[in-house]
Amino acid sequence: MLPFWISIALLSLAQGAVVALPRAPAATSSRALLGAVRAAGLARVKARGWAALPPASVLAFVLVAGAAQRASAQTLTYVALVGVPLLALLALSWRAPRARGAIVAPVLALFALAWADRGGLPGEAASVVLTALSCVALGTLLAWVTPPRWLAAGIVAMAAADTALVVSDLLRKPNNALNAAHPAAGLPRLQSAALGSAVMGYGDLFIAAALGALLAMTAGRSVQRRAAALTALLALCLDLLFFLVDELPATVPVALTLILLAARSRLASARRGRARASGASPPPRRLGPAAAPPRALDPRQSAPRDQTEAVR
């Protein structure tokens, strides 16, 4: 088994990669995305209230798992067993709308590998890929139905709720119960991302996908790639705290990335505003005295003086 520091570093890099995975829907894939939204009954409810979903998911997990830890964990593992591959298919279908038949094979291969090598490093890596793809689908759907500013607030609120629950030690028991739950027949556990001796929650990848989808639809690919690199860097820096504690809120690097990008954007906007204000009204041009209109010449004076006197 991989040592913990390598395992958590790989998961942190995977979290950063998830930020870079979502794409803004193109002309063809947007119809497929809109069809999925309509099929889910979300097309008429594009509203600010969806921004409460990320923080509410953390609180709901604690409440439900606290009420019946083992039963709720078993339920969630079966929900993930069915939902994660389907959502992974949905995410791949948006990336290759013209080759939907060909995307079934890789998803089935990843699922088979995760099942056959459950507990091994290749099987765990296949599970992480499936889980990440499912988070991309959910994050894209959430960004589709939520106004950007409200989704950004929801991402920060989720990180704040996660941090408060980790600091108060309310997440330890539910997380342990969820990580220990597994479906029958040795089927893969897809309710969290486990690699080696480290585990990252499903919500930690989901919030990264939500940030990536938000940036893909509002800021462009270049900003999204910078956000992915910054998320991975901040996550690796946060991992250093594992020398002091054994549990950390992995949603924090994503929220910090969003806050830093927003601050940088506001600073750049302020600079452009000052530049426009200073150059909007150029200094008035100094005009010289008006030229006198040309004097009309008398036809009698057009001849030279010496010739006139000669005629006289």
Molecular structure report:
Strands 1-2 form a two-stranded antiparallel sheet. It has 312 residues and is mainly α. The N and C termini lie far apart (126 Å). The model is unreliable at 286-292 and 299-312 (pLDDT under 50). Helix 1 runs parallel beside helix 9. The chain is globular and about 70 Å long. The longest helix is centred in the last third of the chain and has 28 residues, at 252-279. It has helices at 4-20, 27-39, 53-67, 69-95, 104-116, 121-145, 148-167, 172-180, 202-218, 221-239, 252-279, 305-311, and strands spanning 192-195, 198-201.
Radius of gyration: 32 Å
- The percentage of residues in β strands lies in under 5%
| Share in helix | 55-70%
| Global mean pLDDT | 80
Order of helices and strands: HHHHHHHHEEHHHH
Number of helices: 12
* Spatial sequence of strands, sheet with the most strands: 1-2
Main β sheet profile: 2 strands, antiparallel
What is the 3D shape? globular
- Give the terminus-to-terminus CA distance: 126 Å
Task: Indicate the low-confidence ranges by residue numbers.
Answer: 286-292, 299-312
**Number of β-strand runs:** 2
> Which class of secondary structure composition applies to the elements?
mainly alpha
